[in-house]
Write a structure and sequence with these properties.
The chain is α/β, with parallel strands linked by helices. The chain has 15 helices and 13 strands. It has a seven-stranded parallel sheet. It has a six-stranded parallel sheet with strand order 9-8-7-10-11-12, with helices on both faces. The longest helix has 20 residues, at 59-78.
């Protein structure tokens, strides 16, 4: 349960379910993770093995812990019937909340349960072998939930036919909780105090998908053109060292800042002037929706589901995923006040629409899970 969009959505889904209608079990490969404490108390938690956060601090012993955990997981793959003993009940519905969980879902010993695949990815960026494998597994599920209409259409384009078991359910977000967390005190003065230096903030894992290398190039060009600004990235990931080296090589340590992972990124989003999303691909960019809730002027690349969240030129500004595209959007936000003010105003006007949209999503979710009057389901 580390930080991630799918994990955050899962927490919101679990919190939204009526305890009088559902009894929920959450099956995890690994115990731990920053979001584990966010799991609602009524959810039955079944980790298969310990997470890295619970390993010994000594590297030699940690190695054996890793090996033991890997063998433990492989054992359950070979003998999936052991899950029957672990869960101690028979679920009516089982859900793989990411496509990575599909193989385990379809190996389940509970042959009579309904199998639901929750698909958060943009399949057009999968390699051909992975794409064909995911589609084959998807066909074997009872239902596939797509989190954006664009994601569903791209799968159907590749399949060359409609997904008969596919439904569209947008990601749930607790807007009130986001606003409350945004008001908590966090010392943001070091990066957001200067009124003369406008700041963009972005939240995401430091991975190729998020396009932070492209954003760094756009930032470098604008700084060299004399358009001074700062970019703060909240998140961590495998590209941290590479990005850190590039920032140092370009001499941009003071203006392109890797702030690391933050349990509560929302006060930083509020303190910034703008939100920017530089993703090469996304299924449904959750942080764009969070920025919309917090009334931040948004620049986003034209990744998969973003046009289902913001309207170009109205509630945000959508650019092509390139250095030129990002530069164009950033330069406009930095030197022109009228488009930015218009976006902020339009966002406020659409706040009621967002609340209605969230209610509809919640109703869809309940209908999906209750259509056969299930008592239990596990994720």
């Amino acid at each position: 349960m580390d930080f991630g969009d799918a994990q955050k959505v899962l927490i919101d889904v679990l919190n939204s379910l009526d305890q009088n209608k559902f009894e929920v079990a959450l099956l995890l490969d690994y115990a731990g993770g920053a979001l584990e404490k966010e799991i609602p108390i009524q959810v039955l938690l079944y980790p298969i093995t310990n997470g890295i956060g619970r390993f010994s601090k000594y590297e030699f012993i940690r190695f054996f812990h890793r090996v033991r955990c890997r063998l433990h997981l492989e054992f359950y793959k070979v003998f999936p019937f052991l899950l029957e003993r672990k869960l101690s009940f028979i679920p009516d519905v089982e859900i793989a909340f990411t496509h990575l969980g599909l193989p385990a879902l379809l190996r389940s010993p509970f042959t009579k349960s309904k199998k639901i695949n929750w698909f958060h990815s943009d399949i057009s960026f999968f390699d051909v072998e992975s794409r064909n494998r995911v589609l084959e597994l998807m066909e074997r599920c009872d239902i596939t939930v797509f989190v954006s209409d664009t994601t569903k259409k791209r799968v159907e384009e590749y399949f060359k036919e409609s997904i008969s078991n596919g439904v569209l359910i947008y990601n749930l977000l607790n807007d009130q909780k986001i606003k409350e967390l945004a008001q908590k005190f966090v010392d943001t003065e070091e990066f957001f105090k200067s009124q003369d230096c406008k700041t963009f903030v972005s939240v995401g894992r430091l991975v190729y998908q998020k396009g932070y290398d492209i954003l760094l190039e756009a930032h470098k060009d604008l700084i060299r053109e004399g358009i001074y600004h700062r970019i703060v990235i909240i998140g961590n990931g495998p590209d941290y060292c590479y990005l850190k080296e590039q920032i140092s090589f370009l001499g941009l340590e003071e203006t392109f800042i890797l702030l690391g992972e933050k349990e509560n990124p929302f006060p930083y989003m509020v303190a910034a002037n703008f939100y920017i999303q530089s993703s090469r691909y996304e299924s449904y960019p959750l942080t764009v929706k969070e920025a919309l809730i917090l009334n931040k002027p948004i620049i986003s690349t034209d990744s998969c589901g973003v046009r289902e969240i913001i309207e170009h030129g109205e509630t945000g500004y959508i650019v092509e995923c390139s250095k030129i595209g990002l530069k164009k959007g950033m330069k406009m936000f930095l030197v022109e006040s009228e488009p930015v003010n218009k976006i902020k105003q339009k966002q406020k006007q659409r706040e009621t629409d967002f609340n209605l949209h969230n209610q509809q999503t919640h109703q869809q979710l309940e209908c999906l899970l209750l259509e056969n009057k299930e008592k239990y389901f596990s994720i």
